[in-house]
Amino acid sequence: MTETTRKNGLSRRTLLKGTAGFAGLAAGSGAITGFPYVKSADAKVLRYLGTAVNEGDDISKQCLKDTGIKIEYITATTDDVTKRVMTQPNSFDVLDTEYFSLKKLVPSGNILALDARKIKEFDNITPVFTKGETPGGKKIGNQGTAPWKVLYLEGKDSKKFATSATEFVTLIPTVYNADTLGIRPDLIKRPISSWAELLNPEFKGKASILNIPSIGIMDAAMVVEASGKYKYADKGNMTKEEIDLTMKVMTEAKKAGQFRAFWKDFNESVNLMASGETVIQSMWSPAVTKVRSMGIPCTFQPLKEGYRSWASGFCVSKGVSGAKLEWAYEFVNWFLSGYAGAYLNRQGYYSAVLSTAKAHMEPYEWAYWMEGKPAEKDIKAPDGSLLEKAGAVRDGGSYEDRMGGVACWNAVMDENDYMVRKWNEFIAA
Amino acid sequence: MPEEVLQQASPGLIPGSGSARVAKVTRLSPSFISWLQAGPMMLVFLAFFLIPLMFVVIVSFWDYNEYQLLPAFSGRGYTDTFEGCIAQLPELCTIAKTYLKTLKLCFLVWAITLFIGFWVAYFLAFHVKSKTWQMGLSLLCTIPFWTSNVIRMIAWIPLLGRNGLVNSGLVKTGLINHPLEWLLFSEFSVVLALVHLFTFFMVVPIFNSMVRIDKSLIEAAYDAGATGFQTLVNVIIPLAKPGIVIGSIFVITIVMGDFITIGVMGGQQIAAAGKIIETRVNALQFPAAAANAVILLAITFLIITMMSRIVDIKKEL
């Protein structure tokens, strides 16, 4: 047994030497081209776990071109990403996740904070994340798990969120947006200006909200507050009584047949809206874009009570160290250097470092997406398909107006367990 | 559950193929050979069903917090599940409502698939004479499985939706004035989709039982003056019982645990036992999810036991 092993070991080593020599020869001679992966022993590969939001093929291709880092996407839903971090922390290198899940992820010790000093553009990250205000100085609503509450850790291996800036950053910000209700203006035929309209009996059997408890409860809270039934101290951290009250209002509406369906998946929301099954519902920005690209009028309606916002960013698995950690920093730095930011901006999201993204966008694109000005030319999606004709104005207007109008953030509450139980009760009612 | 059925079926299947080998290896005792034959399936069953199931039961008695399992004995998964069941009386608590709804859907789907499945199988077994046609027509029954679950679900919207084919057809013919809302995202659509999917699981075992019925028995019944109906009730149905029970087990176990079809076709507004487990798992509350899984398993097991009381499958096979 031992002898064979040794023999195998020997022969393998000789083989390796041989290959290396041959590779060196090939590289040295320059005669053989088209072999960029000869150094496959240390090919830079990062396994990237996240939702589909940031995971564009164009982004990974451009990244490989610019940095030589090969990104392997592991795509999962928001809930499944969290589950995977908890149960299989060694199955990924870079994690792209939302700030609200940090309340679960950080105490688990399965993720590693990144060092702010190694992020080139860190000082240029929009004040939305660091100060809770827009670049123009508008204060942003801080109910729920707002990013600035959970951005820093007290120490490298600390499980406590720091109240002031430290160099240990939980998630390096990448992308965020302000969500609101989507409506079918052609079927509603009148202006909509409040979250309360979701429960207006006028839309009986034609309304919908999303069936992801930690996001759905926030939409429900916006509706309850807008209808003047209750004013929360913090929508993102309700007491048991507040959860009961919120679910009671929603349950009554459900029993009265207000909702056509609930949705859980991006495509479900697109189908409900496009087919006219619903005319008013919680929605995500790219879903509205998708409905519009089918030639069906759909508006991401700004409402007077404000937006519900979300944000996500990068960290690494606790198992990542050495050279791999350096690649991770290289990748994150690349991500913030402009190409990816411009790509996300063109989809209707916002990038964390505005200056670099701006440098990668045409002035007319920047004016449409970020400044709320009428499009000078046709607006195209990253894949080249037509999104808006010249003259169109973005729903909700400029970055300042939209992010400045944020009222609350997606959240994991202290009473999360109770809330999930009540949510099940709501579905069963 | 399907494993159990397979296991019960396998003793009847294997001896034929094994008998040739027995002649060669005469030194081995017959009981050893039976162990050898049943062994692989048993190991698979043990490793991928019994052991994981044991873990589920153990975890269901653990405690948990936001981000981890706490391996200390706790009945919290169960007490949370039955929260308010006594306090809310006479009103039903969430879990009771959910199970009543699940059982109702299950019963409807079972009854309809049994009715349709029985007659499809009857047609295939007694009216289609050629083996090739029997094969071809049974393959037709698999058509619902040719597309992915998601596509199938989405495809119902243009058909049953408010502006769908059925509604616009009915409105145009003047039968109704307003589109029927209950066609989609309702119990009706859930049952329709489940029946459409799972009738096949009824057809196959019933057909299998029926082709094995000795045709001379039917001729004898005819000769003895039995009417068609009497032959059906007294000869065919009793002899097709094992197929009926196996088909029923397939359909009931699948529907009891389903949450995807019920979710999509019910517009996520209809509670299902499986859905509770999914929500709990997604919220990382594994012990609570495990507790619900144990409850679901117990109830399904109870139904299966009751059914096998009615027909002793082992004996019938």
Secondary structure elements and pairings:
The complex is a heterodimer of chains A (429) and B (317).
Chain A: H1 2-29, E1 44-50, H2 57-67, E2 69-75, H3 78-87, E3 94-98, H4 102-108, E4 111-112, E5 114-115, H5 127-130, E6 168-169, E7 172-179, E8 181-183, H6 185-188, E9 207-208, H7 213-226, H8 240-255, H9 266-274, E10 280-282, H10 285-293, E11 299-301, E12 307-317, H11 322-335, H12 339-345, E13 350-351, H13 354-359, H14 363-369, E14 379-380, E15 386-388, H15 399-404, E16 406-409, H16 416-428
Parallel strand pairs in A: 1-2, 1-3, 9-10, 12-16
Antiparallel strand pairs in A: 3-12, 4-12, 5-6, 7-12, 7-13, 8-10, 8-11, 14-15
Chain B: H1 2-24, H2 30-59, E1 63-64, E2 69-70, H3 76-81, H4 94-127, H5 131-140, H6 149-160, H7 165-172, H8 187-211, H9 215-223, H10 228-257, H11 260-265, H12 273-282, H13 286-310, H14 313-316
Antiparallel strand pairs in B: 1-2
Q: How do the strands of the widest beta sheet of chain B line up side by side?
A: 1-2
Label the overall shape of chain B.
globular
Largest sheet of chain B: 2 strands, antiparallel
Measured by DSSP, the beta-strand proportion of chain B falls in: under 5%
Structural class of chain B: mainly alpha
The low-confidence runs of chain B, each spanning 5 or more residues with pLDDT under 50, are 1-20
Number of helices of chain B: 14
User: What is the mean pLDDT of chain A?
Assistant: 87
CATH topology of the largest domain in chain B: MetI-like fold
Say how many strands of chain B there are: 2
> Span between N and C termini of chain A?
66 Å
Count of the separate structural domains of chain B: 2
Overall CATH architecture of the largest domain in chain A: 3-Layer(aba) Sandwich
Helix and strand pattern of chain B: HHEEHHHHHHHHHHHH
Domain ABC transmembrane type-1 (chain B): 99-307
Protein name (chain B): ABC transporter permease subunit
Transmembrane segments (chain B): 41-62, 107-125, 182-207, 286-307
Main location (chain B): membrane
